Amino acid sequence: MISPAPEPVRSVAVLGTGLIGTSIALATRRAGSTVTGWDISAEVTGRAASTGALIPALSLEGAVEGADLVVVCTPIDVVASTVVHALAACPHGVVTDAASIKARVVADVAALAPASDLPRFVPGHPWGGSERSGPEHASASVVDGVVWVLAPTEVTDPAAVEAVRGFVEAVGARPILLPPERHDRLVAFVSHLPQVASTALMGLAATEEADEPDILLLAAGGFRDLTRLAASNPALWSEILLANRDQIVRAIDLYVERLAALRDQIRTDDAPDVERTFGDAKAARLRLSAKPQVRAGVAVFQVEIPDEPGALARITAVLGEGDVNIEDLQIVHSPEGGRGTVHLTVAAPAAADASDVLRGGGYDPIRLA
């Protein structure tokens, strides 16, 4: 039985030691817990172990033996079976997962596991990641400050949820509770749809390049920002999108409706509606650009910097010395080379100070918002 007041998690097993699994392992080690790890590929397990993140195990059973918590970070198609295996092999431990889809995982685990094991399963999804893959790109910072969704079902033991919540906080992330179905609906819009849009835009440009070989030479920062996700792992994203098929299809349909509406506004020369559409989106984006405590208002500055080592460090140092906190930062390299553009977001009350500090440091900031 799970204790009503669970002890802090001291021993963790990570199953699946790619980028996410190894990053979680690194953050767990940083928090002071012991970590063992296993991957179906012994070579990947070895690469993860070489980062210092975990003690490698030769089998799943060996990895989970005696663990307080098991974190399943495998590809989606084997998450459920791995969860079920871990529940059986670690009869006194709590098991969670890191899959970006929850409803299908919950249904598959419920169909495969004995009912007596289900209270110890806490479905989860840490919102950290990268377009890169593999343990060599892992970092504890991947989970620093990120939202980590916990999606318990009606049969999940509340003590198991509290155990995972405590672990998530210990590794530096922010736990929130969402029902599995709601989680999948929301991620379809804010995670899966951006991947689809990025991939479609990059595919369109690549097709057009066949007749216009210079098109990608003209690609500026906006295009590069929007297509960054197109560099993500194709096999991984195919699995994710198909696993959340109904929700992503609905999200794509709604996105197509938005695009069609904007297309019609442009086609009919409806300047007020076009401006209103852009204005509404800008206001929403500015609210997103800052941490919750400063969402009442932000200012965005555009600053050109040389494209050379140390340039970004210098501008952040100037702001730091001027006691101006950066809420968000983006850098875009010029396609012509030699320079880049930094977009700096600060809290609105700090806008005047930021402008003065930047000018005093030899920069020429342009306020965009």
The number of E-state strands comes to: 13
* Gap between N and C termini: 56 Å
Strand content: 15-25%
The biggest beta sheet is recorded as: 6 strands, parallel
Write a structural description:
The chain folds into three domains: 11-178, NAD(P)-binding Rossmann-like Domain (Rossmann fold); 184-269, 6-phosphogluconate dehydrogenase C-terminal fold (Orthogonal Bundle); 288-367, Alpha-Beta Plaits. The protein has 13 helices and 13 strands. The protein has helices at 19-30, 42-50, 60-64, 79-89, 103-112, 158-170, 180-209, 221-227, 234-243, 245-267, 271-288, 311-321, 351-360, and strands at residues 11-15, 34-38, 55-56, 69-72, 94-97, 121-122, 124-126, 147-150, 174-177, 298-306, 328-333, 339-347, 366-367. The strands form three sheets. A six-stranded parallel β-sheet has the order 3-2-1-4-5-6, sandwiched between helices. The chain is α/β, with parallel strands linked by helices and 369 residues long.
